[in-house]
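Write out the 3D structure for:
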Amino acid sequence: MFVISTILLLLPISSVGTTVANPPPPIPGDLIPIPGTGTPIGPAPAPIQTVPIAPPVSVYSIDKIKSGLIGSDSLTDETLTKEQLLANPRYWSYDGSAVAQNAPFDLFKNSQGLFIGVKAVSNGNWAGYFAVTPNTDAALFHAVITTPVRTIASNFYENGLYVQTSNGLINYVTCVSVTSSFGTVWAVASATGDTNQATQFKVYWVDTSPDQPLTRDCTIITNGNNYLKVYLDNVLVYESNNLDLQMPSPFNAFLEPQTSYAGQMLDGTYKDYYATSDESIKVTNNPPLADSVKLVDPAGKVIASAPVASGTAILDIGKNHMPLNAYIKVYSSTNIQLASTKSPMNMYGGDTYSVNLNPGL
C-alpha cells in the first residue's frame, strides 16, 4: 500500500448539467508503480462440480420476492452525438473540470459504448469530463472500461469507474487505469478530503504485469465505511473490511477520464454498467430438510453453494457477471434435490427468493 497524506488538489468544475459538488480528482501518478515487474492476474484453478439440471417432481417452487437491481445501462443501445446526449441526458449527468478550463472534450455513444474524451489545456494541468449517476444506495457497481492507448509521451492519463459519497465530500474509491510513458497499469485506490480537495490518496492494489489489457471488466463492492472488494475480469484483486473510507451513502458512480497530457484527445470507452443492492442473493423459507442451496448453470456446473442456516442460504455472486443465468437448487444433507427452479433465472446481487409449497400439491 502506498499512502500520501499531504497532497492537495483543487479542481474547479462547472455547475452545468449536474449537482455534483466536486468530482473525483486524479490519483497522483507518482503513487503508481510502473508496469513490467509483476505477474498477470488470473483465477486460481478450482475443481468443477456438476449436478443434474433436470428438476425433479417437487412439492416446492422457488419464487423471486425481491429484486436487487438498482440500475443498469448497456451504453451500447443507440447512436447519439454529444449535442444529443447533453440535450437529453436521461439517467446520466455530464460535466467536468474541462468545461470550466475550456479544455477540449468530447462525448458520443454508439454500439461500442459511451465515449468520453478529454485533452489537457497544457501539459501538467489536469482536466476531466465525466458521466455520473443519480444518488444511489447500491453496494455493487460494475462497468467495462477501455483505455485508448498503452502509452503517452508525457504526463498521465487516468480512466476508470469511481464510486463517491454524494454528501459533498471528495471521498471516493476507484478501479482505474493509469497511462504514462512507461505504459498502462490498472489499480484500486481511494481518496479522502473535504468538499473542495483531496488530502489523502491510498493505493491498495496495482497490476504491474507487462502489456496489460486495455479493456477490463471492473466490479466495485463497498459499504462506504470499512468494506471494499474489487474484482477485475471476474478475479478478486482486493478485499478489506478494516478501512476508513469516510463515504456515507448514498453514492454517485462516475465514468471518467482525466488527463494532464496536452498532446492529444484521449477517449475512454464504457459499457455494461449496472448497480445492485448487494453482492449476494438470498434463498429464504427453505424446507426443514434443506441443508444447502446451489446455483447451477445451464450446463450443470455449480457456480456457487451455501449452507442453509435458520431457513436461509446466502450465496455470493459478486464475481460473476450479472444477470447471472442459473438454476437455484435446494439439497438435503444426503444430497437429495428437494427443490429447483423450472428454468434458469436471471439473478442480480440483492435478489431474494422464497421456497414455497406448490399450490394443490
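Confidence is low (pLDDT under 50) at residues 1-19.
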